[in-house]
């Protein structure tokens, strides 16, 4: 009788997303964002080693239409909160993106370091720009994507769940954005 009761209770519990199902759901994501955490498509971010909590929030924002990128909104539409958390956990375990292969420009790196200190970028994003909790990893991110995202924060076209990025980006020039993106793309 005890076995029957346990079996009955287990049959009422929600079933976890199977590994195959989660892999199937992630396949279209990784086709653009990179199966090994490294995007090869212009303006598409690499997701490798992003903090799980950050990714969960971003997926939620896409699902709820708080961030609008049509393919992302459509793909997230019917996913549950558990699905979003499961996907985020898998993404967070993928390897970090490989830094840009081209040689870094020392002058641009120095200007970026000064901007980072001035704007305290490494306060939220960590000293090594690995991100944490609700703050994204920026180290090794695609340079073109970083330029796009920073410009969107500056223009307020990209609204985050925290207004601090728009505030920080207001005094930053476009030349500064290019230097910051160059620096971050070359970090390990």
Number of helices: 10
Instruction: Based on Cα principal axes, name the global outline.
Output: globular
What percent strand?
A: under 5%
The CA-CA distance between the termini, in Å, is: 58 Å
Q: Can you write the helix and strand succession as a string?
A: HHHHHHHHHH
Radius of gyration: 19 Å
Poorly predicted runs: 1-20
Largest sheet: none
Fraction in helix = 55-70%
Secondary-structure-derived class: mainly alpha
Beta strand count: 0
Output mean pLDDT. Answer: 88
Structural commentary:
The chain is an all-alpha fold. Helix content is 57%, strand content 0%. The chain is built from 10 helices and no strands. Helix 3 crosses helix 4, helix 6 crosses helix 10 and helix 8 runs antiparallel to helix 10. The chain is globular and about 50 Å long. The relative contact order is 0.14. The N terminus is likely disordered.
């Amino acid at each position: 009788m005890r076995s029957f009761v346990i079996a009955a209770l287990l049959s009422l519990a929600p079933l976890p997303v199977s590994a195959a199902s989660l892999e199937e759901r992630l396949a279209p994501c990784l086709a653009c964002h990179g199966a090994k955490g490294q995007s090869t498509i212009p303006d598409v971010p690499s997701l490798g080693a992003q903090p799980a909590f950050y990714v969960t929030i971003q997926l939620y924002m896409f699902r709820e239409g708080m961030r609008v990128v049509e393919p992302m909104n459509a793909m997230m539409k019917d996913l549950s909160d558990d699905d979003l958390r499961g996907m985020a956990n898998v993404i967070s375990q993928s390897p970090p993106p490989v830094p840009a292969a081209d040689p870094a420009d020392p002058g641009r790196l120095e200007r970026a370091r000064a901007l980072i200190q001035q704007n305290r970028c490494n306060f939220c994003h960590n000293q090594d720009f690995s991100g944490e909790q609700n703050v994204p990893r920026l180290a090794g991110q695609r340079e073109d994507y970083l330029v796009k995202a920073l410009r969107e924060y500056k223009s307020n076209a990209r609204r985050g769940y925290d207004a601090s990025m728009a505030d920080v980006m207001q005094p930053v020039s476009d030349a500064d954005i290019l230097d910051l993106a160059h620096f971050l793309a070359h970090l390990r």
